[in-house]
Amino acid sequence: MAIVAAAGLATTFTASNAGAADRTAPLPASGFNQPAAVQAEQALTAQTAAALGLGTGEQLKVRDVVKDADGTEYVRYDRTFNGLKVVGGDLIVKRKGESIGQVTYNRGAKAVAVATKPTLSQSAALTKGAQAAKFKATGNKGQLVVFVTPTKPVLAYEVVTTGVKADQTPSVLHSFVDAKSGAVLAQDDEVKTGTGNSMYSGTVSIGTSGSYTMSDPTRGGNYTTDLNGSTSGSGTTFTDADDTWGTGAASNRQTAGVDAHYGSQLTWDYYKNVHGRNGIFNNGQGARSRVHYGNAYVNAFWDGTQMTYGDGSGNTRPLTSIDVAGHEMSHGVTEATANLDYSGDAGGLNEATSDIFGTAVEFSANNSSDPGDYLIGEKININGNGTPLRYMDKPSKDGRSVDCWSTSTGGLDPHYSSGPLNHWFYLASEGTGSKVIGGVTHSSTACNGATITGVGRDVAAKVWYRTLSTKLSSGSTYKDAREGAINSAKELYGADSTQCKGIEAAFSGISVPAGAAACGGGTDPEPPTGDNLLLNPGFESGAVNWTGTSGPITNNTGRPARTGTWKLWLQGNGRTTTENVGQSVAIPASATTATLSFWIRIDTAETTGSTVYDTAKVQVVDGSTTTTLATYSNLNKNTSYVQKTLNVTQYKGKTVTVKFVGQEDSSLQTSFVIDDTSLTAS
């Protein structure tokens, strides 16, 4: 089922030693407790916002914290601006101790300031949202927000329309309406649907409590209820006289409850035992599963708080198997971590994530009645010919999904744009060629024609979980997925490991182009070119080898790079800020001349005249002495790149820091964009 959501780009900015705030509320030193970690980080949000250089009126709210064994933390934040929620303004801060090492801004949205007075009335926005819903609304409300598009933040109304679609699926549809033009910018539905099989899992043990209630106190209180054909409400928790549940037949109402409860139990155990995750929201709390939804409802869904399962065609094939439970509960994990949108590339990543972990749960269960395989929905027979809904080894076999990523992939329904990532998971796990898995013959080829050796399903799943929980944000793309997965594999297994190279090869095998991240044995991602003494001189590896303020080194498309996609973008904030980026470099004592050169582009909103408001300085730091070699300002406006060359021969035989410093006053932006630096000696 197609659900449209906000598409966008996730951009990574990196920096070192960015002056993180002092920890007055340190994270627990041992026995990591995620809720306590969230509380501790929330106490530091004002200091963190200041360290990141966020604008006046911006506040952070911690959504998730992941802490590695070495103390490295990945803190995920949502933002508000002048009290308005910023949709698409989420960011991830990676740090260790007092040092911020990396900041990932969703859609490159470092700054989110907008004028907060709408020209469109709220009533007009509500009407627009209700019209966009395309179902009979039972509720309609709205509020002003800042909505981050792939190019800029805008003031918008978030209109939430509730109701039920023609196929009985409930909807809580968020429509984002431009508060000036009235255009519907994007939509996102809280209810994430998915279909799977209704396979009977045999005789199983399930967690119950009290006087035989289908509630599991050992797994956060996971419990299962009977909706008895209703499409609303909580349902009635299943109870039994002797703790022997169901008959294995759909005619017994408890049978569907057993399968759903068993599936939630297996999924909880999988995330806890394999990934160290304590429930869907990583806070130890369980969730409800509702069965017997509607009449002959051929679907299942996650609605933000619970799993719900229909009884299938003729009310005889409940969609309550292991992989469906894993799929739906994983939508909850995605919501609690990356919160991937449900359209564009992000929609495919969202849906494939649930297929990946639903499949991983099925393998982990090791249930002889439901052996693990790489088919999705193989027993439900929705097609009427015994074929599955989706094939991970060759997604295009369903006639609608795609095997390989392209620039058009994001335009597909998320269930079909999921194809490339499902294909990646199979290639990374099993490789190319033919083999029998779970009694099923699988055969896969790489889109680039390569022969790929799999690194194992467990490795691929661990890499993808780390990518989801520490690298991706709501608008992430397939290119972001490749970058995140390779970096995750490097962190887990090492840059020169077989595992990292297998993960990388599988992404090449689905035609996702290479970016900055790469496996290998210790070479710089972008080494110096020719006689250039600077490392990563064109910034194409992000902030690798450069230190200073987080954010200015960026591939944000708001300003063009001279070459490649990354550059140094100083200022452009329109408020009082100072930013700096520098690199330490040794100039040989044997040099007769040493030259620093770079290309710079300057655009400004300042009025023409003779007053300097905003500046960018090029400096050399030699021990305790800082020398400014050149100063550029709003008066030097030039919207095409110009090369500048400076003599640094006087520093031969020394190790100095080449530094670019931008300063901006309280109003009107000036952007100093620098690319393709070099320091050569002869």
From TrEMBL:
The active site is at residues 328, 415. InterPro entries: FTP_domain, Peptidase_M4, Peptidase_M4/M1_CTD_sf, Peptidase_M4_C_domain, Peptidase_M4_domain, Zinc_Metalloprotease_M4. Its main location: secreted. Residues 211-253 are annotated as: Disordered. GO terms for biological process: proteolysis. Its cofactor is Zn(2+). It holds the Pfam family Peptidase_M4_C. Residues 338-512 form the Peptidase M4 C-terminal domain. This is Neutral metalloproteinase. Residues 224-239 have a biased composition (Low complexity). Residues 1-20 form the signal peptide. Belongs to the peptidase M4 family. Residues 58-95 form the FTP domain. GO terms for molecular function: metal ion binding; metalloendopeptidase activity. It comes from Kribbella sindirgiensis. It is an enzyme of class 3 (hydrolase). GO terms for cellular component: extracellular region.
